[in-house]
Amino acid sequence: MSTGFFDGIDAITYEGPDSTNPMAFHHYNPDEVVAGKRLEDHLRFAVAYWHSFAWEGGDPFGGRTFDRPWYPQDNMDLAKLKADVAFEMFEILGNPFYCWHDADIRPEGDNFAESLKNFEAIIDYFAQKMESSKVKLLWGTANMFSNRRWMSGASTNPDPDVFAYSAATVKACMDATQKLGGANYVLWGGREGYETLLNTDMKQELDHMGRFLNMVVDYKHKIGFEGQILVEPKPQEPSKHQYDYDAATCYGFLQKYGLENEVKLNLEQGHAILAGHSFEHELATAAALGVLGSIDMNRNDYQSGWDTDQFPNNVPEVALAYYHVLKAGGFTQGGTNFDAKLRRQSLDAEDLIASHIGGMDICARGLKAAAAMLEDGGLEDALKDRYAGWEKPEAKAMLDSSLDAIFDRVVSENINPQPQSGRQEVLENYVNRFV
């Protein structure tokens, strides 16, 4: 039975690049085979429950602008209506996956037991709906940043009771993710950081965060969860400094606490920008370190200094991102989650569908361009040429040598290197041929 929220909106189909229909796919054909794989299987699109259904259109300077039939989000009947609308949207878009935080899908109770009861009831409701739907769960996670109890962090909180509450919350969310067949479980450290060092014992907080993540991994193995455990880097906002600053910082943390072979990263475009990086930089870093797991696809407004979570619309940026995903072998258990939300002036149900259509089309165009570049091999050939000197036996031997031996060689052979062009503009022009 339809909720009526999407009345007048039919299932979205592929009509091709010449179509002018705003409610159709122009570049995303899920069955199109690219680099030996269907686009749907390459991209593994997921709808974010929090931005699409739980977010009310507020910003730092004003309250909600949306008016949804499942507001206020404070009782189980409306939580089920919200789920009904969500699954209707999944059918309309044909996205293969969705993602949630616990607080997105259930009303908050007066205590942990009441919240858990609501959460388990809505998970049962999701399980029933998934039996008649093609959509699967890409990942679940816990919201440990919105409620005032998390104001000083979750696993890093100076109050041990908050640490305990956090552990219980994650355990419940991991159980739910496993029950729904989730492919991953994400830890998003929204407030795992500090506002000032004047009241912060950084070493203790980092040690507690490392111990907490080890508990998560131990529990994964105890229950036989076959999904990936993912950590999501984010540099700041809301905390002045967050411990999961970027891909490299997270990898150093994982190494310190013996988790580099157990945990991978869920990387977000908007967070990369906040860290002063490009998305391709974060993806290339994670791939080089062997911890590329999944991505949150969105963008920031480059004229704003905060995380605006807009839908992607820049094909060159997206193409370079997927270039590194494909170069690393593509997604296995991860995928492309639209951690993106409507603008607060985009009020209609049609806006919610159109935003995802655009995002899916942009990603399809980007991935196809990335695949074409990899097949052509121009960038890889340029890399091979630039580093060709390291294929010589004397260069390889140097890495197993010593400073004094290398010194003697430079003197005896009169080595006097001359700069070689990096050909940046040539390579940028090359990329522009594809995007």
Automatic annotation (TrEMBL):
Location of the active site: 101, 104
Any one cellular-component term (Gene Ontology): cytoplasm
Cofactor binding: number and manner: Binds 2 magnesium ions per subunit.
Gene3D superfamilies hit by this protein: Divalent-metal-dependent TIM barrel enzymes (3.20.20.150)
Principal place of residence: cytoplasm
Binding site for Mg(2+) 2: 268, 271, 307, 309
GO molecular function term, any single one: xylose isomerase activity
Binding site residues for Mg(2+) 1: 232, 268, 296, 339
Subcellular location(s) of the protein: Cytoplasm
Membrane-spanning ranges: none
InterPro entries found in the cross-reference section: Xyl_isomerase-like_sf, Xylose_isom_bac, Xylose_isomerase
Catalytic activity: alpha-D-xylose = alpha-D-xylulofuranose
Enzyme Commission number(s) from the entry: 5.3.1.5
Gene Ontology biological-process entries: D-xylose metabolic process
This protein's UniProt keywords: Carbohydrate metabolism, Cytoplasm, Isomerase, Magnesium, Metal-binding, Xylose metabolism
Co-factor(s): Mg(2+)
Domain of life: Bacteria
Family: Belongs to the xylose isomerase family.
Quaternary assembly: Homotetramer.
Protein name: Xylose isomerase
